[in-house]
């Protein structure tokens, strides 16, 4: 097969952007009103029992029918497996990327590659303050002195504000991530954010994620092959030695193992 010319690649990209714009325009015309918190809570509790045993495709088919475009996917851009799986059921699904200002260049590059090639809509979730503004108020390198506050300002609060426009959010949390996540359900009520939380990959292993990516030619962050099985902000993430817990490189040396998004 011949390599596409620059003009062909450019036209393909323009067509991709036109398709995304057309979907967004159509969605705006048929926008739905978000249901009340009590209504969503009932749906979540019923679904938690219904999908207790879990089947990713069956679960996501239900999500597409129940919530449609009022669904958001949270993606750290360690890989694009989760949004790829979801987009098969909800094309052009909103995919939330927490733009903390501290990402590895590889993570930003993965985000850009995903946006330009996959049938989804990237929503950059921005903190209220730039890094410079945060430094001016709290001092430089807050992530070293108070990582919990840094995550709260740059991840938790911006995500909470953004999720207010949705009925359900889909995460890539897996039970094999860490002992704290070993009992992750497929569906649960997110009391903190006031919406339904879906974990369709809860029973997947890291190897299954990689196998899916290989089978479907899904974009992976190159850091995954460079000793980073769990990727967060650059200042707070280190390489993991063979045999270490996959999340051992997150906030290494600190009494912290979660950013607060899922706790």
From TrEMBL:
**Is Signal a UniProt keyword of this protein?**
no
Q: Which CDD domains does this one have? A: PAPS_reductase (cd23945)
Provide the binding site for [4Fe-4S] cluster: 150-151, 233, 236
Q: GO MF terms on file?
A: phosphoadenylyl-sulfate reductase (thioredoxin) activity
Kindly report the protein's main subcellular placement as a broad class: cytoplasm
Assigned keywords, A-Z = Cytoplasm, Iron, Iron-sulfur, Metal-binding, Oxidoreductase
Question: What EC class is this?
Answer: oxidoreductase
Q: Per the record, what are the reactions this protein catalyses?
A: [thioredoxin]-disulfide + sulfite + AMP + 2 H(+) = adenosine 5'-phosphosulfate + [thioredoxin]-dithiol
Which co-factor is required? Answer: [4Fe-4S] cluster
* Chain ranges of the Phosphoadenosine phosphosulphate reductase domain: 73-238
Q: What residues make up the catalytic site? A: 259 (nucleophile)
The cofactor remark states: Binds 1 [4Fe-4S] cluster per subunit.
Summary of the function given for this chain in its UniProt record: Catalyzes the formation of sulfite from adenosine 5'-phosphosulfate (APS) using thioredoxin as an electron donor.
**Xref: HAMAP family:** CysH
**Protein name from the UniProt record:** Adenosine 5'-phosphosulfate reductase
What species does this protein belong to? Aeromicrobium senzhongii
Per UniProt, what is the name of the gene that codes for the protein in this document? Answer: cysH
């Amino acid at each position: 097969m011949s390599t596409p010319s620059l003009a062909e690649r450019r036209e393909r990209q323009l067509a991709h952007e036109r398709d995304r714009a057309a979907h967004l325009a159509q969605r705006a015309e048929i926008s739905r009103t978000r249901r009340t918190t009590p209504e969503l809570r009932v749906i979540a509790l019923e679904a938690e029992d219904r999908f207790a045993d879990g089947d990713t495709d069956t679960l996501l088919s239900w999500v597409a029918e129940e919530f449609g475009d009022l669904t958001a996917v949270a993606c750290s851009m360690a890989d694009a497996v989760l949004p790829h799986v979801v987009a098969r059921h909800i094309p052009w699904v909103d995919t939330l990327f927490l733009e903390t200002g501290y990402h590895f260049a590889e993570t930003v590059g993965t985000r850009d590659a995903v946006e330009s090639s996959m049938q989804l809509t990237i929503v950059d979730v921005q903190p209220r303050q730039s890094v410079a503004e945060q430094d001016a108020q709290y001092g430089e390198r807050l992530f070293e002195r108070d990582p919990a506050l840094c995550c709260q300002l740059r991840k938790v609060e911006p995500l909470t504000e953004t999720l207010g426009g949705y009925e359900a959010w889909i995460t890539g949390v897996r039970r094999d991530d860490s002992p704290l996540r070993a009992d992750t359900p497929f569906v649960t009520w997110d009391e903190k954010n006031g919406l339904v939380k879906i974990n369709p990959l809860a029973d997947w292993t890291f190897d299954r994620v990689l196998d899916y990516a290989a089978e479907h030619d899904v974009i992976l962050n190159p850091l995954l092959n460079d000793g980073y099985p769990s990727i967060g902000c650059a200042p707070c993430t280190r390489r993991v030695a063979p045999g270490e817990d996959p999340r051992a490189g997150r906030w290494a040396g600190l009494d912290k193992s979660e950013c607060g998004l899922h706790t």
